[in-house]
Amino acid sequence: MQFELLKESSDGKARVGKISTAHGEIDTPVFIPVGTGGTVKAVHQRELRDDLQAQIILGNTYHLYLRPGIEIIKQAGGIHRFITWERPILTDSGGYQVFSLADRRKISEEGALFSSHIDGSSHHFTPENIVDIQRIIGADIMMALDECTGYPVDYKTAKKSMELTHQWLERGVTHYERTQAVYGYEQSFFPIVQGSIYPDLRAESAREVCKYPSDGYAIGGLSVGEPEAQMYEVVHHVTEILPADKPRYLMGVGTPANLLEAVSLGIDMFDCVLPTRNGRNGMLFTSKGIINIRNNKWKNDFEPVDKAGFCFADVHYSKAYLRHLVISNEILGAQIASLHNLSFYLWLMNEARKKILEDDFMPWKNDMMQRVAQRL
């Protein structure tokens, strides 16, 4: 994998770059649609590729490991062939999912022992077998196993968790370097910065992960309930330390406003379930603000979903029709809302790139921050 830094904003840390992988190029800053179990919920791969022009999607190691299982994926020839997606794929390590299984898991220095949410069967993730699992899945970008803390968390617990993540990282990097790709193309391995909301822990963690030469670096453990101001403070501290010539990935974030602010702080990559999850529940992120399509005010609004037209669904269907579909629990409602939200997120990152290249990012960003946060 290669990363080319093309331009930095003259009035901040926002930047434009290009990541080259075995399965294609990725323009940054980029939003990565979340395809948890080998599918971006309610969206066809053809729509992702042709209509939305998504350059990369995310798969979840925990879910793919449990179902369909890595042997099935291996028999298919890897995740790209299994799901019919020829562009880049990133897999997370499953650490966050294990963290969310508070009553089903036990963390130790060796790894994470957990019970499947599907059938209660017992499984063990270690820094080494997480590398092996992601090798078999075949993602272009793999993540190191980390421990994610919730919020709030006391300093002592956060420090202990960070130190465990660092121990796991050393073992994971060693195993990554000793193993080979299963399908004949290069796979990158990203360390993850942890340390909760504590600036000194985050700085320590950022310096520690930089000891390991990598194609990119991730920031985890945010957007877990902390105030947005603290999240931005952490991102600011960490991006000051992470190398400028490698992509920076902010995991699990966030709202359109979160993305814009993080871009201004030097973040290159994002993923989040908000566009699809909230879309399925009737929340639309639009060019003028946030719409709850379930509200009665849209009952007889026959204007397009979004006149800006980020994808065909925006201008092909009316708000009234989409409201009818969503409150009726029709599958098409989830499809249209997910398509719209994803297309808006991808458009937002495309526009950010344009504005950075034009050296006009901050004025545009400040205006968009106000617009995208409005409740309509």
Characterization of the model:
By secondary structure, the chain is of the alpha/beta class. It folds into two domains: 271 residues, TIM Barrel (Alpha-Beta Barrel); 103 residues, no CATH class. A five-stranded parallel sheet has the order 4-15-14-13-12. It starts with a strand and ends with a helix. The model has no long low-confidence stretch (mean pLDDT 96).
- Looking at the structure, what is the overall shape? globular
Overall structural class, as computed from helix and strand content, comes to alpha/beta
* CATH architecture grouping of the largest domain: Alpha-Beta Barrel
Radius of gyration (Å) = 20 Å
CATH level-1 class of the largest domain: Alpha Beta
- Tell me the fraction of residues in β-strands, as a range: 15-25%
Largest sheet: 5 strands, parallel
Brief rundown of the structure:
By secondary structure, this protein is of the alpha/beta class.
SSE layout:
Blueprint: E1 2-8, E2 15-21, E3 24-28, E4 30-32, H1 45-51, E5 57-60, H2 61-66, H3 70-76, H4 79-83, E6 89-92, H5 95-100, E7 105-107, E8 112-115, E9 122-125, H6 127-137, E10 141-143, H7 155-178, E11 188-190, E12 192-193, H8 199-209, E13 217-219, H9 228-239, E14 248-250, H10 256-264, E15 269-271, H11 274-280, E16 283-286, E17 289-292, H12 312-316, H13 319-327, H14 331-357, H15 361-372
Parallel strand pairs: 4-15, 5-6, 6-10, 10-11, 12-13, 13-14, 14-15
Antiparallel strand pairs: 1-2, 2-3, 7-8, 8-9, 16-17
Helix pairs in contact: 6-7, 7-8, 8-9, 10-14, 10-15, 11-14, 13-14, 14-15
